[in-house]
Design goal:
Blueprint: H1 21-42, H2 49-63, H3 70-79, H4 86-98, E1 102-104, E2 110-112, H5 114-121
């Protein structure tokens, strides 16, 4: 599809200074992803889409004073049209627990480990 705002010579379009909500949301999401990538790297883990999305789901829930278990994270990802299996989500949550990035709470919900939260907020 032709977009008159994009250059046709193959170069990247200049960054817009417009503060429309779509651009702002993309920049915010990119910033969050960069922070999560840094977090994973500091724990010696590779970045993967599923890890990014699982941690982002936990952060989003924490900002809303909610807690999510495996089913909650899985449902959140499905709501975002990210088609991951329940088992994949569960295995990622287990691995992040083992590595100390997140913790399993007594109510079977997951949250960011305090050390991981410190890494995220002090970047």
């Amino acid at each position: 599809m032709y977009n008159s705002q994009l250059p046709t010579d193959g170069s990247h379009a200049p960054k817009s200074t417009s503060m429309s909500s779509g651009v702002f949301e993309q920049r915010t999401e990119r910033h969050v992803n960069e922070r999560i990538r840094f977090l994973l790297k500091s724990f010696g883990l590779r970045t993967s889409l599923i890890r990014l999305k699982v941690i982002d789901a936990l952060l989003t829930a924490a900002e809303s004073d909610r807690s999510l278990g495996v089913r909650g994270v899985h449902s959140h990802l499905l709501d975002l049209d990210i088609p991951l299996s329940f088992l994949s989500v569960r295995e990622v949550l287990k691995r992040l627990c083992v590595e100390g990035v997140i913790t399993l709470n007594t109510d079977k919900s997951y949250s960011l480990h305090p050390q991981a939260a410190a890494v995220l907020h002090n970047e």
